[in-house]
Sequence to fold (184 residues):
Amino acid sequence: MIRVLDVVLSTVGLVLGAPVLAVLWVIGWFSTGSPLFRQERVGRYQRVFTLVKFRTMRPDTASVATHLADASAVTRFGRFLRGTKLDELPQLWNVLKGEMSLVGPRPCLPSQVELVAAREARGVFAVRPGITGLAQVNGVDMSDPERLAEMDAEMIGSLTLRDYFRYLVLTVTGKGSGDRIRPS
Fold:
């Protein structure tokens, strides 16, 4: 049932959001010359896939977990995208392709070995990663791998259809702070 909802909602989001995606792409092009950001992430069964987002940092920024990136790397337009969570919209494509779900544990980088190990120990990789979930709406990010893995496992073990929609609504209405960026 969740996969059907993912396909329907991501398709609707991509179709209805196409004008917004186009405008953000153009603004991003003028802001950085490279509006889309692609990064390898760890998905279901620990398969690596390429996540797509709108770029929020300068193109020359090192590919590290957000909490390890320097705040000065975030562009002015990137701050807007992060604040509104519009940087996540291209991930609807990842959802449609079946690499992600709308709701699930945020996909981590292969280099985040502590988080990968904590999630592996708790069976978190048995599900598709998501754009949002319990940890995200509660402001828990990848800077605390053990706590994040625990919260991911808790969400997976108790996820209902009601929770699925609740996490989506909370995310769209601005609940959760997103990944922290270390101060410059």
In short: The CA atoms of residues 56 and 82 lie 7 Å apart. The beta strands are 36-42, 48-54, 101-103, 130-132. The longest strand covers residues 36-42.
